[in-house]
Amino acid sequence: MTRQLHLGVFIYPGGHHIAAWRHPDMKAERITELDYYLENGRLAERGKFDLFFVGDALNAREREGRVVGEIAINNLDPVSIVSAVASVTERIGLVATLSTTYNEPAMIAAKFATLDHLSGGRAGWNVVTTLDEKAALNFSRSEAMEKSLRYQRAQSFVDACKALWDSWEDGATAAEPARIKAPMYRSEFFSVDGPLGMPRPPQGWPVLVQAGGSEPGRDFAASIGEAIFTAQGALPGAQAFRSDIHRRMARLGRAPDSIKIMPGLSPVLGDTEEHALRREAEFAELAHPSVGVWMLTEMTRFRLYDHPLDSLLPTADIRAFNPALGENAVSLMRRAEASPMTIRDAARIMVRSRVHQSFVGTPEQLADHMIMWLNEGGSDGFNILPPIFPNDLALFVDHVVPLLQKRGVFRRDYEGPTLRGHLGGTRPPGRKS
Ligand SMILES: Cc1cc2nc3c(=O)[nH]c(=O)nc-3n(C[C@H](O)[C@H](O)[C@H](O)COP(=O)(O)O)c2cc1C
Fold first, then answer.
1. Cα separation, 370 vs 19, whole angstroms
2. pLDDT tens-digit profile of 105-160?
3. Gap from CA of 128 to ligand 1 centroid (Å)
4. Cα-flanking dihedrals φ and ψ of residue 340, to 5°?
5. Hey, whose CA ends up nearest to atom 23 of ligand 1?
6. Quick one: DSSP state of residue 7?
7. Residues of the chain with CATH 3.20.20.30
8. Cα→Cα distances 395→33, 213, 284, 374, 414, Å
9. How much is the pTM?
């Protein structure tokens, strides 16, 4: 059988374009309304997507004392959103982000076991260590934990959760106490007696998703991930990332196809290429260039707003100023080094899709492009980032999904009830007494 694509949709307040909320097709007040999430969840299920994904934000971003960015301050709680979407959908997987840095395993294990029960086996957890260092200030700490320590804690956090999810044998009920065992998990980070306060979830565990790009982040992904979200702007980088994860998995004795790597892809579609380009220009008009320059400055810590907008992005100076650039910033530097771009160009990339890949063209061109990435080993699918919800998701569902189905690379219907089943994974067997 032809290798199959896996598709996620990444819901974002308004849309992935930073100025989505200003577009006449998007009503900004909908971002905090239930119906907005339900409509997009139903739409993604109509498109037979593997999963519906919600990120988190543990603090409102600010720059130089001012709170900024519609998308950065309208993040509703992810588990509440996917729980609501579960009630109006039947098959689509539901992935919520929760941090291992600012939570406790017993709480998170119970949340995802609940979601998995209530949704009939559709839960997924995007396990993050928290991107924003300033989040520490909201959690009674004066600074963020050092990164490699954060990932050690994350590994232990997941181990403790697995011990809780496995504390009930498969199929055991509360009437069979002999089949329920307290795991008594101990590590340098956590002490969890257990057992879980409810039966083993339908999938055994929720599907574990990872999105970290650093060295310890990649090791963690290779160790626990079943799907990986990543920002890859171009095919060679995406191929290198996928091979790197596969190498790390091989070292741990894991089969490469037990992880589905899903880079972000932001589609700007049109009936013709000219139409798509016109739409892209129209989106760009909605954001002042300085917004993108601020975003670049935040990502690199290098004060780009002190430089002329039409000068070349000073990648060497940025790298020298900040040798600890994150994965996303490095990916942008590499792109600019391969094909020089001005600060204005880079700002435009940031407002469009941060550093995720964006594609401007017709549905046919996009389907060809996605299949090319699949065949060339750039990915196992994509996390779709519509510039504006729900319109750009609807365009993708109605015009791109049918082409992918016709080409034999995407399901015409769901085969089973669980998220892990959609991703082609194997259910964790659980404990035997
Ligand atoms: C598609 C995608 C979604 C992400 N969503 C979140 C999120 O919701 N919350 C968060 O703290 N980090 C999120 N991240 C960031 C990662 O978890 C990670 O912190 C970041 O990639 C830096 O990784 P590193 O610390 O391993 O370098 C996301 C990353 C990607 C690629």
1. 26
2. 999 999 999 999 999 999 999 999 998 888 999 999 999 999 999 999 999 999 99
3. 6
4. -50, 140
5. 212
6. E
7. 6-270+362-422
8. 22, 30, 19, 21, 21
9. 0.95
